[in-house]
Amino acid sequence: MTTARMSKEDYATMKQGEQKELQGRLDRFMKEAISTKAGMKSLTDHYRISGLYGYSLTNSILIKIQGATIAQSFNKWKELSRCVKAGEKSHISIFAPIIKKDKNDDGTEETKLVGYRMVPIFAYEQTSGEPLAYDHNSTECMDVPYTKVLKVAEELSGVAVVEEITGNARGYTDGTKLVVSSMSNDVDKTKTLIHELGHKLLHTSKAGIKREVSQSAMEVEAESIGYLVMSFLGLEFNLSKAYVANYAAGIGEARTDLIIRCADKVIKALKKELTEEEQFLVALA
């Protein structure tokens, strides 16, 4: 039994319906997002992902509401030395301009925007190949395998380490998991993971986030732990913007005894995982 082919007219009608439905989703999402400060922050954080794509704000939001963070066309992924995986089908559409060229009476050409059409693109997760250039990534190399750092973080925290596309953020923890950016390299994953492990050990409980100190002090404590542990690993640690912004307000409240005890706990756990050669290389760094 053969399936009848769709006529051009029916296909055009179907596409117009899909475009109208997507526009409706965009309108509804925007009305909800702009009604709260958190919604607006979510929008701007998504749009400001640096160095990854240059879509309009509209198309950036369309990508977000269709469940992706980074997406490109089939050919653009090839330019970035990544390929769409075999069998993957696009589930994301954006609006591309329809440009019409008209000739003026004097023979010159004039371009006019006459509308928009939907075009398919593919999410980062649907591709494989070279890592994307990303501003989270350091140029340093690690003498200690990241897998060992991950193992220690999971053992000490009691929760899983999860890699996600986190936009401009390097990572976070909500107490139930430690999240690091899947776009970062191993050095920066390690930096983020130690920072978030500090938050998990000092600032969360089974009930969620503990508010024993201010948010500013929490950032100072977590970043200080990161600095101490990374120094042990022989890696440079550039203090984060969050630390610099919170230092003045949080330094007086930060609990130095807990910072040292927590960092010591992480370092001791890492030492147990390192081979003699790795410990030697770390000591030389």
Number of domains: 2
| Unreliable stretches | none
Structural class of the helix and strand makeup? alpha+beta
Using DSSP, what is the number of strands? 10
What's the rounded overall pLDDT mean?
83
Work out the helix count: 10
Structural Rg:
24 Å
Our measurement of the CA-to-CA distance between the termini, rounded to an integer number of angstroms, reads 70 Å
Assign a percent range to the helix content. Answer: 40-55%
Widest β-sheet, arrangement of strands: 1-4-3
* General form: elongated
Largest sheet: 3 strands, antiparallel
Order of helices and strands: HHHEHEEEEHEEEHEEHHHH
Topology, element by element:
Blueprint: H1 8-33, H2 37-47, H3 57-65, E1 71-72, H4 74-79, E2 82-84, E3 92-103, E4 109-123, E5 127-129, H5 146-157, E6 160-164, E7 171-173, E8 177-181, H6 186-203, E9 204-205, E10 208-209, H7 215-232, H8 241-250, H9 256-273, H10 276-284
Parallel strand pairs: 6-8
Antiparallel strand pairs: 1-4, 2-5, 3-4, 7-8, 9-10
Tags for this model:
3-stranded mixed β-sheet, alpha+beta, single chain, elongated, 285 residues
